[in-house]
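Data deposition worksheet. Section B asks for the primary sequence of the deposited chain exactly as it was used as input, without tags or linkers unless they were present during the calculation. Section C holds the resulting structure in token form. Section D is free text for depositor observations; keep each observation to a single sentence. Incomplete worksheets are returned to the depositor.
Section A, Depositor: J.P.
Section B:
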Amino acid sequence: MEQSIYKGMKVALIECESCGFAVAFEHPNRTFFFCRRHAFGVNVPTAKLDIVQMCRPCSEAMERYELYDEDNICPMCNSFLSVVYIPKV
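Section C:
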């Protein structure tokens, strides 16, 4: 992916093209944590990236996912993730 095209943009949402898994991005990093059991993901503030994130319903540690390090592959079904960008404000 050509990163210069996305300069001045931030990730707003990712969604799997096959299974519908989605994560909204409220913070300007490209990392999210997810629970396989509940197919739930959350983007956390950059300051909290090194803290273990827990899934509230099952009280298990969530897995960390780096959007571009993982080649935009869905952690639930291994299909492709679509990425929606918006301008940084």
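Section D:
The radius of gyration is 13 Å.
The longest strand covers residues 9-16.
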